[in-house]
Design a protein that fits this description.
By secondary structure, the protein is an alpha+beta fold. It has three domains: 116 residues, DNA Polymerase III, Chain A, domain 2; 121 residues, DNA Polymerase III, Chain A, domain 2 (Roll); 121 residues, Roll (DNA Polymerase III, Chain A, domain 2). The chain has six helices and 26 strands. The protein has an eight-stranded antiparallel sheet with strand order 6-2-3-4-17-16-15-10. It is elongated and about 80 Å long. The protein starts with a strand and ends in an 8-residue tail after the last strand.
């Protein structure tokens, strides 16, 4: 079998598929990429037995067809130092099982493995389908919320991203119990009206799909598995099983206190104060003091007799209030999740969570971020 393909095309696919492959695998062949050459295309597949990702790439020339398994690291190393050019791949899939990559200044060769030994799950039947989810919505929501997923093996359902479809609206949510990010999308399509369904996507899959941008995505799922098609990329994965908490119940309603805060200013202020705040297992306690058209951020560490505060001008016409927050969480929300020049900080009282929203929201998507309060101490 002989094929000619662009170096950047096959390398890009190999790099993306390698994100699925684990550093250590129960089956050695799962360190390989399964390749199937047919109809001037090559379907490339990687799996860790619970996540299966396939990508289809166009070939410039094809002579013969067949299937083979190539080591992912070997393939990436062979391509990594080459300049952009067409490369020729010779794959012998019979007796000697050899892979040869020819380029303008030389060649690289190494053994192949039998494609028949590569394990793939049985085809699933899906009972829920979302046909026209915008690819940009999907990638934006996943990038926005990934940081808020938990890293707690005792609560696996909090380690994933929750998708909830109800009456044509879609929520994409992540929370670790201390912070929450929710992207609420308007009517997806008319077919989605009057339907209810949900699933929990593993963090590994969310990271992979967060790097894939396309025009539309198709999502299918059942009780155990889900499948996402984004252009020439397909990802099939086992779902995290369990019931996700009622995230809407922790988002306060009718918050009467609202401050309009310049995003760049508050990020700069947090960075000034946070090095001198009390560090409790990574939770940097900051005091947010709201007065008329003024916000003061204070960080203090009485054990080491140090502290800092910084004041900025904001739009806040309400009565004074002080709230304790995790400075690290607040900075991440402002820097990685929010967009635009200003953000709305909504509050009820010092004992309830604050919600943060961009001052300008898209008509199709409403983004809400929540940070739980921390107890303030006066020493």
């Amino acid at each position: 079998m002989k094929i000619i393909v662009s170096k950047s095309v096959i390398e890009g696919a190999a790099n993306m598929l390698s994100k699925v492959i684990n550093a250590k695998n129960a089956l050695p062949i799962l360190a390989d990429i399964l390749c199937e050459v047919k109809d001037k295309k090559m379907q490339m597949t990687a799996s860790d037995s619970e996540v299966i990702m396939s990508m289809s790439i166009e070939l410039e020339t094809q002579e013969g067809e067949g299937r083979f398994c190539v080591g992912a690291d070997l393939l990436r190393n062979a391509l990594g130092q080459l300049a952009e050019q067409p490369v020729t791949i010779l794959a012998t899939t019979e007796s000697d099982m050899k892979f040869t990559l020819q380029h303008s200044t030389g060649e690289t060769f190494f053994p192949l493995e039998n494609a028949d030994e590569y394990p793939l799950p049985m085809a699933e039947k899906y009972n829920e389908t979302l046909d026209t989810l915008k690819g940009q919505w999907l990638t934006d929501a996943l990038k926005r919320c990934l940081w808020a997923t938990a890293n707690d093996d005792l609560r696996p359902i909090m380690c994933g991203v929750y998708f909830a479809l109800k009456d044509g609206y879609l929520d994409i949510v992540a929370s670790d119990g201390h912070a929450l990010v929710k992207s609420h999308y308007s009517v997806i399509d008319q077919v989605a009206l009057n339907r209810i369904g949900s699933f929990i996507m593993p963090k590994k899959v969310a990271k992979i799909l967060g790097d894939v941008t396309t025009t539309d995505a198709k999502v299918e799922w059942n009780d155990r598995w889900a499948h996402v098609n984004v252009g020439l990329c397909d990802v099939t994965f086992r779902l995290i099983e369990g019931k996700y908490p009622n995230y809407n119940s922790v988002i306060p309603e009718d918050q009467q206190l609202c401050a309009i805060v310049p995003r760049a200013f508050i990020m700069n202020s947090i960075r000034k104060v946070i090095p001198f705040a009390l560090d409790n297992c990574g939770s940097k306690l900051l005091r947010m003091s709201f007065e008329k058209d003024k916000l003061t951020l204070t960080g203090e560490n009485f054990d080491f007799q140090m502290g800092a505060h910084d004041t900025m001008t904001i739009d806040y016409p309400h009565s004074p209030i002080e709230i304790g927050v995790n400075g690290s969480t607040l900075l991440t929300i402002m820097a990685k999740v929010c967009s635009g020049q200003e953000v709305c900080v909504n509050m009820t009282d010092a004992s309830r969570a604050i919600t943060i929203e961009p001052s300008e929201q898209d008509d199709d998507c409403k983004v809400t971020m929540l940070a739980m309060p921390m107890m303030l101490t006066n020493e």
